[in-house]
Amino acid sequence: MANNQKVETMQASSAVFFIFGATGDLARRKLFPAIYSLYREGKLSDHFAVIGLARSQRTREQFREDVLSSIEEFCRYKPSDGKHEEWAEFVRHFEYKTLDINHIDGFRELNAFTEEVENEFSTPGNRLFYLALAPELFGRVSSHLKEGGLLESAGWHRLVIEKPFGYDLGSAKQLNEQIREVFREEEIYRIDHYLGKEMVQNIEVIRFGNAFFEPLWNNKHISNIQITLGETVGVEERGGYYDQAGALRDMGQNHMLQMLTMIAMEPPSRLVPEDIRDEKVKVLRSLRAFASSEDVSANVVRGQYTEGDVKGIHLPGYRQEDKVDPDSNTETYFAARVFVDNFRWAGVPFYIRTGKRLPVKTTEVVVEFKSMPNNVYLGQKYKLEPNLLVIRVNPMEGIYIKINAKKPGTDSEIEPLAMDFCQSCMIGINSPEAYERLIHDAAEGDSTYFTRWDEVATAWSFVDHIAAVWQEQPESLAYYPAGSWGPSAAHNLLEQDGHHWWPVNGQDEDNVIWIKNK
Fold first, then answer.
1. pLDDT for 156-174, tens place per residue?
2. Contacts for 24 with CB less than 8 Å, ≥ 6 apart
3. Structural contact between residues 423 and 198, judged by C-beta atoms closer than 8 angstroms
4. Which residue numbers are catalytic?
5. Which of 177, 207, 237, 249 has the greatest number of beta carbons closer than 10 A?
């Protein structure tokens, strides 16, 4: 086993990892690089194997070449960094088997093949099934795993599934029922890769590990919270999928609401996965429901990008994208004003927004504290800016705190002062990817950063009412040019409350430096 640095975390359990959809984009870009990184850091047991599964006819040697190509292109560690013998030792753990998931005989053959692999690598019968497949196939694969004998080994069995988990609450329930006929809830690991990101997980530490934050983390001291998830790209090759999903289902139901729960949750009583997930569910259950179509119209904005020019490059509108209906009313942007109706957050608006073809690629949480009184002491003479805590999740990871301080060299002039901690600057490209953490956690049986069924169901309940109103009101769709910050209605949403969207990544919306680090 490669061990190029001191290992501070335990190794993942010995297991066979089954990658369904092994020739797909997710496996190539994320899964194989994640497994190699775990191996390079000594976080993967010596006794492991990976079996790639897909319909394509591939030899074992061809598959291993695919794995090498994937890691060379997408992994933060490169095979060329180590010894040739090290790579040879790693890749010998990889096997490939052609499988048609519609035929049960193929699963029986897979089980016999797996037993041979387990004997070769001395794994104790632990099996992790990663379904990098379309959600409608989850139930069929689960039942065939059982009928094919793959769940009869001596060790544990875990199922890892990707979003989207259903299209709405009804389809999610049906999908969950199919899976639960085979796997228990504690064996199901629903991935939301945003929960594996370094700074999303760091939210808990920032909140509960610092005595000067937790006493202020409530409606007495916080004015509003803003969560932005911006993408500069359009739908690219995902037009067919995206036109059926839209921003609300693709990003809102999972990533946006998950980040909201991390910010708003109460301190868990114990540091165990179920207690942490219990607190997240309580936040989702406390979301103020939109009781009428008028509530949706007043608090939610939906938009779709049109043609635009960015840095001299002309970009097509959404309806001109490949595999998109030219009359589509699918939203590529949405913003919402959301309230968490509990004692901690009563009256504090949470503003969330996400969209494609925005000017900046970013994921950022801005906590705006209440301003100092403007009729007392310094407030009588100066316009004091509110204090901000900014948690930068992507692409730069770090924490940004904005305070007011006396300008150096002047008698009394006050200016905003930036206190900026850049985690990416310290760790650089060696910052662990989300999938590394999540695969390792699944192998260890740690479900903290995976979504439980009641989380999924409660989030769908909240989102479904918005989607139903939009279905009845196609005229509610607003438009914004590619490269802009979305429809003007999204800005009006905050102006109604006397707030505004704060700049992201330290820049204002015209890409002018916002506050310089001192």
1. 999 999 877 888 999 999 9
2. 54, 132
3. yes
4. 255
5. 249
